[in-house]
Amino acid sequence: MSEPVEDPDIVSRRIARESLDRDDPTGWFERLYSAASEGAAVVPWDRGTAHAQLTEWAEESQPSGAGKSALVVGAGTGWDAELVADLGYDTTAFDISPSAVAAAQRNHPDSAVHYLTADLLAPPPEWNRAFDLVVEIYTVQALPIELQPAAIKQVGEQVAPGGALLVIAAARPDDQPDEDVEGPPWPLTRTTIESFATSDLHLIQLAQAPSPTDPTILRWRAEYLRD
Ligand SMILES: C[S@@+](CC[C@H](N)C(=O)[O-])C[C@H]1O[C@@H](n2cnc3c(N)ncnc32)[C@H](O)[C@@H]1O
Residue 3 C-alpha to ligand 1 middle, in angstroms? Predict the structure, then answer.
């Protein structure tokens, strides 16, 4: 008789929990992507297509990326980065997990996107204020709440003067205490979404919409512009 195969979904959750219990809040991403590449786990957020709210934003805003640069944060397997590149942006997409970067390159062999491994919490200094568009989807919420302010600061720091930032994240009520949130993920309150803004990075649009697959989950779509 063959060994029973463990449910890849359960494996994914166990990998996350083991890392977090060891006080290693980002180590589980590499372990998860690496296990997934061998079929032993699933990457729960890998949609096989661009995020619906990114697609919606692109259709509404019709941005022209010609001659402009974009940075996709925590790019995972690359579907959002590919959409951004299709808009004409010279696109850089990074992830902390080398196996995620390898999967993105495997998924999109003819891609124009520059995929690379980097840590949002310590990004290359040459990225500072260098990108006309920064896209952040679900990376900040994948980090424990105490790491989110540093991650949020770094997301905003990469936006060039005159550039835009798009943030998509799961939402939670402002009055839900942090200690009641059993992540990952740790969805963002309105106050946290507002904290991406600084004296020269302005929140210009904020919308909340239910997830099409689970209407009990609300998601933010926020857009910011740098002076
Ligand atoms: C919840 S997933 C979302 C992936 C992708 N943005 C999406 O929406 O499908 C979070 C991603 O962020 C990456 N990540 C987590 N911490 C990071 C960090 N400090 N720097 C760069 N990437 C990070 C993970 O490896 C993972 O691919």
Answer: 32
- Tell me which residue has its CA closest to atom 14 in ligand 1: 74
In angstroms, what CA-CA distances link 80 with 85, 113, 177?
9, 11, 31
152 lines ligand 1 (CB under 6 A): no
Would you say domain 52-226 falls under CATH 3.30.70.270? no
State which ligand 1 atom lies nearest to the alpha carbon of 141: 1
Q: Is the CB of 49 under 6 A from ligand 1?
A: no
55, two tokens? 């697609």
Q: Contact, 100 vs 77, CB < 8 A?
A: yes
115 lines ligand 1 (CB under 6 A): no
pTM of the entire predicted model = 0.96
Which pLDDT value is given to residue 5?
61
Cβ contact 204:223 at 8 Å = yes
Regarding the beta carbon of 77 and ligand 1, being less than 6 Å apart is answered: no
Q: CA-CA distances (angstroms) from residue 101 to 13, 92, 118?
A: 21, 12, 10
In the chain, the percentage of residues whose pLDDT exceeds 90 is 85
CB 164 within 8 A of CB 71: no
Is 120 near ligand 1, meaning CB less than 6 Å away?
yes
Residue 158 Cα to ligand 1 middle (Å): 16
Regions in the chain scoring below 70 on pLDDT = 1-5
Domain ranges of the chain: 1-44, 52-226
* Distance, first Cα to last Cα, the chain: 66
